[in-house]
């Protein structure tokens, strides 16, 4: 059964002019082509008969048998399936006309315009009219209702032909005349619908007659389509009659369409049944799927609604994975299923609706709405589940994170806190010094700030623990325990810290007090120590005193010192008291550690020892002073003794000196007289010596007693000694002078008068009368004697008379000077001149010359003493007699 | 330049003699005789005179060697000199003397 409409050959040449064309043809066909008439007659007759045979009648002659209208009406009834009005049974013309009219009216009632067809013509047997009328009937009842793809009637029929013959290459139906001439179209039509009836491939396209006849035969035999056409007619006619062809082809249409209809009907039924079955199957499927789906939803939803959290992340993750699997693997097919379900439902409903069936009502609880709502529930549960999963996972993550954080922080804190307890419980401040305590305090301060800094952390830890509690962490018990222990320890640390601070501060205060005391001790002990040392020194001071007053002042000082002792003692006690206080503090507060004073090196023992020493020294000193006093008294006595003696001897010596001086200056009398006087004095002096000795003895005593001064006399032993010696020397010298003067007088022949003159001159110019002349005196003296002296000359002369530069000229020197000027003595020059004679006028002398002239020992003396001569013209062995001579006279010529 | 004067106008003068022995002056005295070492003669126009040696000068040092006072020592020192002889003498001078080749110090 071919349902395919091949639209490729669709020819839309026939428009809506069908009617008009028909009209034109009808008008033209008033002059009907005899060929056509022949064909039409045959075809129409056959056609009518094919219908009339159902009514059990036939027509032989188309223009005759319809004249009475009865068969016409019958034909119409058969064709339309409707009842016409009862025909008039009569033989009269008007009965015939009435019947034909009835037929015509019927035709007209079927919407056919019968133009220029009247009943009379039909009754009269007008061939053309009758053929026309039959054609009209055929058109109306066989062709008009043909509808193929919205094309109806002639075009529809043509279209149908074209569609059906489309697959046949050598068939091209364009019209209802020449296209059919080769018969292939008919065969094709037959083959199309009933390929079993004709072997189309074996047809010869050139055998038109054969083909046509074959088609006619098959149609008559198997398709119940009587032959309506004549093959020769068609072949021989250039253009076969369209209407005849159309009529015959319309029978094919109706036959196949009918067959098709039957087929279609059967198909329809099959289809309907099939559709039914299908639908039922679909319904079943739907129900089944729906059940399954619902079942699945029912199973799954609780799973999704299960909100029992797992304890660990991994378990939750597993759950999430499961969910993911569900989403990825399990649900999509279900989604698809649901979709499918919906689609099938919709399809089913549509199909049912299309096929005009009642809509599908799923069973209770399996309605689309149920499924939808169940699905919705699922999705909601799902969504809620996913959310819940994620929330849970987040929560667990957070919990894990928090727990980890807690652990970390707790561990860190515990690490920090470990050992702090021990440190805080240390009693290291017991034996610390002040600076150590201060350092400990600083350290403690630092620790306190560290502690404060950690307060935060402890709070954080507690907060985390709290959060863990709130979030219902699975291992929250352990956390709480740890947190608790941390907090407890923290409080404990706090307490310990406070205690330690207090202890440190207390100790610090004590140590500060002690420090102060030490400082005071140091401040007071140092000067006190100094004082004691000074006192000891003073008390042990070796004193050298020479007078009673000195001793007495020392004693007074000592007494003064003794007066300060009580004050010192109290100071001592105060100082020692300080130390005791320190000791007490140490004892009372159990401070261990050094009791040494950092400010002072002086210990109490030292102070005590020194004080005792001082105490012992005091009486010692007393004794010493007393001793000394006694000694001084003794010394005084010695002094007085000495003084008494010295005061006698001193003046005595002085007197003697004056006596001698006077004697020396005495001008009257001879030198011998002077000598005698002097010798007398000498005796006296010598006789007085024992006194001096005695004084010496006293002096020795004094010296032994280490007496160095004597205010009772201006004379020291040295004075006396010196004076005595001077006296002795003076007397000796004076005597010697006199002797010398005597000698000189005798030697130089100075007369007494000369001597007297010298002496009186000397005496005159000895202005100071001290037995000597000073330079001015001497200068004056010389001037008075006629010397005209320049400074230089005078100086020279001074040098001669006062070689020792004493600044004074003695009488002896004066005499020497005066006599030198007048005496004739051997001088160095004279000796040199003498040597020169011996040396025969040479500036040097030779040894053998000396030996020749001088006695051997004097010659040897000269040779030994004479320096070598180094002047011009010197020879070996030359001796310098000039230097030698000058040297003899105390002069050297250089 | 420090002028050494004692209270009575004694000055130390440095004299430079040149030319070599004989210098032309006579020394007398010396510690051997317990006397100061004095110049007692100066020949006219001699090298000593040219240098400014005067009678009465006490020799204090010879060739920068301070003397102990013994004449023998002084003689030895003088004899050691060849062409130049530096004497420091003590001289009584109430007025400053500036001999042409003597240095006052």
Concise synopsis of the structure shown:
The complex is a heterodimer of chains A (894) and B (105). With 894 residues, chain A is mainly α. Helices cover 72% and strands 2% of the residues of chain A.
Describe this structure in words.
The complex is a heterodimer of chains A (894) and B (105). Chain A has 894 residues and is mostly helical. Chain A is built from 29 helices and seven strands. Chain A has helices spanning 18-28, 34-52, 62-65, 70-80, 93-109, 119-124, 127-143, 153-165, 184-193, 208-222, 231-236, 242-305, 313-354, 368-417, 420-425, 434-470, 476-540, 548-589, 604-665, 671-704, 717-749, 752-765, 775-784, 791-801, 811-822, 828-838, 847-853, 856-865, 881-888; strands at 147-148, 151-152, 772-774, 808-810, 845-846, 878-879, 891-893. In chain A, the strands form three sheets. In chain A, strands 1-2 form a two-stranded antiparallel ribbon. Chain A has a two-stranded antiparallel ribbon with strand order 3-4. In chain A, a hairpin with a 2-residue loop joins strand 1 (147-148) and strand 2 (151-152). Mean pLDDT of chain A is 82; it is low at 1-30. Chain B has two helices and seven strands; from the N terminus they run E-E-E-H-E-E-H-E-E. Chain A binds chain B through residues 791-792, 795-796, 798-799, 803-805, 828, 867, 870-871, 883, 886-887, 889-894, and chain B through 21-30, 33-36, 38, 40-41, 54-56, 58, 71, 74-75, 78-79, 91-92, 94. Strand 7 of chain A pairs antiparallel with strand 2 (25-30) of chain B, so a sheet runs across the interface. Chain B: Its main location: cytoplasm. Chain B: It is found in: Cytoplasm, Cytoskeleton. Chain B: Keywords: Actin-binding, Cytoplasm, Cytoskeleton, Developmental protein, Phosphoprotein.
